């Protein structure tokens, strides 16, 4: 009985194999496309990538399958892409960590986004300061005043020395001449916990990262480092309104990229599909529930954006290194 | 009262044939993924993630609950039968369970594990339904210093319950050292990678479990000749198991006492509520506590049902607990709930306190599904499949181990998408085999690698909180409590062990083995 079963199964496998091997034409995409997410399954970046892929599928006429390669400041996934074949069947995403931190720190030897073809940016998440709603200060000005009155006593939760939000906190310290007690956490989940249990006075990351506690009223945002107010949290003032210089604008993003050397045909097809998906009404609605801002950039504009960002933040990281903090 | 009504409505949702089908399906997937080393319930849910898009949210959640509960339980099946725990949470069950198996009491061991899991899972689910707001507040009182002390407590007790404390300490230190390989999470620099960029990812938990248990067990098996193997399994083979035997544990359970079950469930639930810890830590702590309060601590390590009941109750109680902070704060309690959070995000739902109150009808079926999985499906699965579990050992050894080996290594690849991790698993396995033959226990090593990164992270965060002054560990109440507990266990456990080794040698005459 078992022997029969096994032989039938084997036969089935053979038939299936023959069927799948038979396919394949010259029109892209003729098979499934692997999308490598540089973050763990279940996180915010993962959700954005899966959503945008899901919306882009019918437009492109192909199917994406997502693999998660988290770790090393979101650089593991992009690092895999760098050595993939540029046939358009392996693409993935980049975040701030993958563009700036990874390249500066050289966590992986030879890591550089120059080895990738950047296709487009789909979302942006501006950084913000979030405080407890029962804190003695309620606005940005009061918060800074409190920091001036208690040097080194106000605890601010960041995401590790040298991280994007750490650089931002330092910039604010220098601008106002204040000093915080900077507490490092690994990601936004422990940051949320720390603000809830009162371990820190403020935490820094995107408003979307703090959505659960903002919606429950346990915490409030006092500043967002963006140009325009967040559609989901219109009460939070932007850094521009507060009067900070332009270069304080800070945040992470999702960029879609592939290995260097994608053909023009593949590039146009992918960019078109993602453009329709990321600028669609459905995507905007979905993004609103999670506090993410859809933001489209492509081509030269995108490259310029990344290069400017690198120049600016590499400088700040150089200072950190010179001070022996990293 | 309205809440209770909603929960009852939830029962009807789960009782719909389609929902039941998803629950059974999820549960079965969970059993398979949990039992196979290298495949975990977290991986199962991650793989099901794309499927959940096309399902209604309630049914997706019902299915995930089945996977979750079954996945944490079923690791104990392979732990008992072939001494390779299918999931890290069952590492402790392996010690007592396999000892019982060798004595021909495999059915009872699995019976104990199943019923304890059912009890723990049910208590955890009930606590989730009725007291979650309260426990969230309690959990929020434990801050980073307290969490560090809790980790320290777990690590210290693990050394104290090792038969040879020096060897326990050495393996623990080895584990902690391996944990530092990879990226420094608080500074984004790589450590101890020796120029190999592949090592940046560090040693994954799946890699570790597969290496330490599966691979090292294969090597041990190679050393056992076929005739010896026959002798070893003869005991187990002789007994003809009937379905009844699995449930023939009432007298044992009376002796174990209802209090141990309740206590272990509370330990598990609470460790689940604490973000960061998880089922493996719950199992370790409950095992230590069961041994500390046992009437016959000398039986530990030689097949004591208490040593199965404690950790198995605790690790399934984690399911209910880990969902609490995920639902009410959006902070996942363990790896599986972290992926569940992704399911929510895809549906555009942001978990939070007010959401829990507003959308109880959405979550009620999920609660019911979790309770049902524990209370009904666990015993039912034992009744249906129990006899087959024990037949595993009757499979030709070559086929059995080579199949498990292939699946386990593929599981490592599925979890990490990295070939390097597969090689690391083999390396870890070889290292653990030699350590084991020299009498070094493997559990402290595993605990060291799992808790090491957490320990380091908490320590560094706490020190910055206290401006570099370690006194903060004594001035924070939550931290002090765990430090005192550590001392209590440090005083109690070695005494028990000393008494036990003397007694065992006197009564049975055979030498005390390391666990």
Structure in words:
Chain A is 44% helix and 20% strand. Chain A is of the alpha/beta class and 326 residues long. Chain A has 2 domains: 168 residues, D-Maltodextrin-Binding Protein, domain 2, CATH 3.40.190.150; 123 residues, D-Maltodextrin-Binding Protein, domain 2, CATH 3.40.190.10. In chain A, helix 6 links the parallel strand 5 and strand 6. The longest helix of chain A has 24 residues. By secondary structure, chain B is mostly helical. In chain B, a hairpin with a 4-residue loop joins strand 1 and strand 2. In chain B, helix 4 packs across helix 6. Chain B is globular, with a radius of gyration of 22 Å.
Give keywords.
heterodimer, A: 326 residues, alpha/beta, D-Maltodextrin-Binding Protein, domain 2, 10-stranded mixed beta sheet, 12 helices, 20% strand, B: 515 residues, mainly alpha, two-stranded antiparallel ribbon, 23 helices, 1% strand, globular, disordered C terminus
Task: Offer a quick outline of the entry.
The complex is a heterodimer of chains A (326) and B (515). With 326 residues, chain A is of the alpha/beta class. Chain A has helices spanning 2-22, 44-60, 76-82, 96-105, 140-149, 164-176, 188-196, 211-215, 239-242, 264-278, 281-290, 299-322; strands at residues 33-37, 64-68, 90-94, 116-132, 155-158, 181-184, 202-206, 219-224, 251-259, 293-298.
Number of strands of chain B: 2
Contiguous low-pLDDT stretches of chain B (5 residues minimum) are 502-515
Number of domains of chain B: 1
Quaternary organisation of the protein chains:
heterodimer
Poorly predicted runs of chain A: 18-24
Task: Explain the layout of strands and helices.
The complex is a heterodimer of chains A (326) and B (515).
Chain A: H1 2-22, E1 33-37, H2 44-60, E2 64-68, H3 76-82, E3 90-94, H4 96-105, E4 116-132, H5 140-149, E5 155-158, H6 164-176, E6 181-184, H7 188-196, E7 202-206, H8 211-215, E8 219-224, H9 239-242, E9 251-259, H10 264-278, H11 281-290, E10 293-298, H12 299-322
Parallel strand pairs in A: 1-2, 1-3, 5-6, 5-7
Antiparallel strand pairs in A: 3-9, 4-7, 4-8, 4-9, 4-10
Chain B: H1 2-15, H2 17-35, H3 41-52, H4 57-82, H5 91-102, H6 106-140, H7 144-161, H8 165-179, E1 182-184, E2 189-191, H9 205-223, H10 226-238, H11 243-246, H12 250-256, H13 258-273, H14 279-293, H15 306-329, H16 335-346, H17 353-358, H18 360-391, H19 397-416, H20 419-437, H21 443-465, H22 472-475, H23 477-508
Antiparallel strand pairs in B: 1-2
Helix pairs in contact in B: 1-18, 2-4, 3-4, 3-16, 4-5, 4-6, 4-15, 4-16, 4-18, 5-6, 5-15, 6-13, 6-15, 6-18, 7-8, 7-14, 7-21, 7-23, 8-21, 9-19, 9-20, 13-14, 13-15, 14-15, 19-20
């Amino acid at each position: 009985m078992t022997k029969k079963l096994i032989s039938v199964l084997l036969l089935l496998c053979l038939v299936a194999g023959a069927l799948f091997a038979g396919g394949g034409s010259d029109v892209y995409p003729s098979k499934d496309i692997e999308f490598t997410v540089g973050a763990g399954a279940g996180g915010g970046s993962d959700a954005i990538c899966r959503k945008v892929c899901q919306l882009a599928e019918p437009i492109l006429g192909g199917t994406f399958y997502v693999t998660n390669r988290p770790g090393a400041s979101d650089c593991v996934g992009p690092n895999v892409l760098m050595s993939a074949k540029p046939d358009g069947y392996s693409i993935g995403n980049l975040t701030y960590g993958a563009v700036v931190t990874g390249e500066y720190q050289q966590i992986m030897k030879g890591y550089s986004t120059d080895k990738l073809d950047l296709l487009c940016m789909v979302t942006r998440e501006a950084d913000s300061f979030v405080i407890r709603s029962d804190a003695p200060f309620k606005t940005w000005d009061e918060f800074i005043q409190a920091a001036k009155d208690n040097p080194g006593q106000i605890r601010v939760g960041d995401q590790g020395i040298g991280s994007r939000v750490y650089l931002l906190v330092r910039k604010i310290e220098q601008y106002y001449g204040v000093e915080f007690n900077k507490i490092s956490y690994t990601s936004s989940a422990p940051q949320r916990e720390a603000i809830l249990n009162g371990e820190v006075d403020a935490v820094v990351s995107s408003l979307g990262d703090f959505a659960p506690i903002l919606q429950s009223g346990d915490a409030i945002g006092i500043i967002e480092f963006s140009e325009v107010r967040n559609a989901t949290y219109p009460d939070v003032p932007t850094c521009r309104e507060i009067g900070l210089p332009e270069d304080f604008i800070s945040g992470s993003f999702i960029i879609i990229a592939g290995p260097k050397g994608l053909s023009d045909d593949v590039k146009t097809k992918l960019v078109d599909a993602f453009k329709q998906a990321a600028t669609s009404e459905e995507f905007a609605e979905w993004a609103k529930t999670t506090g993410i801002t859809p933001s489209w950039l492509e081509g030269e504009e995108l490259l310029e954006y990344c290069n400017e960002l690198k120049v600016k933040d590499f400088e700040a990281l150089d200072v950190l290194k010179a001070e022996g903090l990293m | 009262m309205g809440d209770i009504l909603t929960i009852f409505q939830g029962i009807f949702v789960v009782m719909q044939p389609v929902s039941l089908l998803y629950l059974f399906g999820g549960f079965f997937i969970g059993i398979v993924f949990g039992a196979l080393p290298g495949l975990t319930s977290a991986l199962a849910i991650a793989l099901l993630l794309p499927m959940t898009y096309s399902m209604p949210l309630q049914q997706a959640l019902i299915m995930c609950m089945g996977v979750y509960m079954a996945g944490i339980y079923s690791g104990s099946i392979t732990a008992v039968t072939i001494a390779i725990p299918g999931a890290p949470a069952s590492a402790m069950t392996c010690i007592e369970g396999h000892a019982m198996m060798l004595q021909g009491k495999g059915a009872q061991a699995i019976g104990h594990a199943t019923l304890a899991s059912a009890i723990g899972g049910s208590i955890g689910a009930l606590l989730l339904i009725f007291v979650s707001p309260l426990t969230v507040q309690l959990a929020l009182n434990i801050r980073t210093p307290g969490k560090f002390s809790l980790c320290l407590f777990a690590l210290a007790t693990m050394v104290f319950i090792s038969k040879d404390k020096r060897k326990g300490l050495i393996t623990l230190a080895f584990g902690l050292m391996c944990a530092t390989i990879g990226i420094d999470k608080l500074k984004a620099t790589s450590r101890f990678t020796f120029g190999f960029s592949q090592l940046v990812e560090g040693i994954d938990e799946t890699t570790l479990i597969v290496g330490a248990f599966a691979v090292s067990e294969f090597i041990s098996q190679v050393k056992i000749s076929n005739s010896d193997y026959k002798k070893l399994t003869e005991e187990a083979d002789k007994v003809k198991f009937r379905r009844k035997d699995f449930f023939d544990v009432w007298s044992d359970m009376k002796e174990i006492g209802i209090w141990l079950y309740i206590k272990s469930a509370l330990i598990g639930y609470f460790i689940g509520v604490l973000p960061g810890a998880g089922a493996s830590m719950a199992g370790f702590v409950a095992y230590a506590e069961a041994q500390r309060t046992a009437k016959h601590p000398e039986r530990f390590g030689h097949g004591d049902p208490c040593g199965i009941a404690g950790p198995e109750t605790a690790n399934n109680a984690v399911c209910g607990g880990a969902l609490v902070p995920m639902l009410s704060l959006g902070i996942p309690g363990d790896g599986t709930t972290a992926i569940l959070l992704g399911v929510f995000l895809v549906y555009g739902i942001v978990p939070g306190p007010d959401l829990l109150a507003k959308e109880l009808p959405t979550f009620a079926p999920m609660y019911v599904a979790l309770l049902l999985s524990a209370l009904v499906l666990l015993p039912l699965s034992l009744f249906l499949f129990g006899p087959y579990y024990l037949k595993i050992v009757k499979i030709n050894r070559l086929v059995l181990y080579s199949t498990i080996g292939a699946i386990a290594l593929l599981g490592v690849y599925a979890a990490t998408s990295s070939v390097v991790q597969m090689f690391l698993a083999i390396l870890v396995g070889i290292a653990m085999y030699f350590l084991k033959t020299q009498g070094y226990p493997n559990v402290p090593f595993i605990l060291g690698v799992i808790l090491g990164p957490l320990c380091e992270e908490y320590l560094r965060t706490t020190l910055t909180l206290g401006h570099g002054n370690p006194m903060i560990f004594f001035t924070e109440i939550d931290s002090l409590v765990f430090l005192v507990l550590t001392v209590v266990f440090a005083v109690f456990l070695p005494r028990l062990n000393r008494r036990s080794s003397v007694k065992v040698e006197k009564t049975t005459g055979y030498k005390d083995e390391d666990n």
